[in-house]
Amino acid sequence: MPRFLYAIVISALVLWSLFFYLLFKVPPYSILTIGLFLLVTFLTFGVSSSLLLYKVKSKKLKANVDRRLFFRKLSKWSFYMSFGIVGFAFLKAFSLLTYLTITLFLLLYGALYLIIKNR
């Protein structure tokens, strides 16, 4: 395992422990705790799916590929997926699921896809 992944794995473990702490110990009575939970969920899913994608896709890498740059490219798509999941959870948590907000969120999600794809 490359050395740069050690810090990322440790941060993923810390994020998962914080995620479960917020899920089971902190009651969602205020907007602050709900927002903190959604932020931690976004980071947890993004980092964890980045590690999972790296593990799966790194088997096909050639020897002369920069693994750190490869991980960053995979992280873009992992956090994009995490944004979609947490975005819908945000709309649901604050009772904003209407046809208008879903349409606007999907337009934002599509625009973000085009921005990430062209980078």
TrEMBL record:
It comes from candidate division WWE3 bacterium RIFOXYA2_FULL_46_9. The chain crosses the membrane at residues 5-24, 30-54, 74-91, 97-116. The keyword Transmembrane applies. Keywords: Membrane, Transmembrane, Transmembrane helix. This is Major facilitator superfamily (MFS) profile domain-containing protein.
